[in-house]
Amino acid sequence: GQNIDQPTEMTATEGAIVQINCTYQTSGFNGLFWYQQHAGEAPTFLSYNVLDGLEEKGRFSSFLSRSKGYSYLLLKELQMKDSASYLCAVRDSNYQLIWGAGTKLIIKP
Amino acid sequence: IAGITQAPTSQILAAGRRMTLRCTQDMRHNAMYWYRQDLGLGLRLIHYSNTAGTTGKGEVPDGYSVSRANTDDFPLTLASAVPSQTSVYFCASSEGTEAYNEQFFGPGTRLTVL
Which residue is closest to A30 within chain B, CA to CA? Predict the structure, then answer.
């Protein structure tokens, strides 16, 4: 079967750095997405990785290791508005997105 | 403002009733999707449409049907609602079906079936 694993919940302090991990086992791999979802709202796109390595986009960076079936989302200089759920999704061999359950990130002052 | 709209925002429905959730996008995207989101689970694909006039089944299609008569609209119908269909339903669209095409989501419909 196909499986995406993420921690259920993480807590971090305003101004700090946090790393949210995602491991996957899917039938085929055609890229990995990270989305942000604030409570009661729609998911919004953050990043897409298809090659190994780190992609940086402002305060957010995403890393991929295809050989390890592993990705992480790194958030720097945390702000209160970063409190949200972060969803990892893998595009499989059928080009469908397989979604993790999401990681709820709580930012404390 | 360009994007995706969904209606209704929320609905309470008696079991056995028929219900259509509406979804409209104005981005001229080719592909559209319906997901359900339940607590503790990832988004699960119900049905999709890669282009107007075509539809396909996702991971959890039973009890749901869709149509794609034009590019903009992608309604989801529950023929006879059951309590297990209580969920938040998201409609999404993407420009195409390439691997890198991100999906844009509507605001969701919160459905409760009693």
Answer: B99
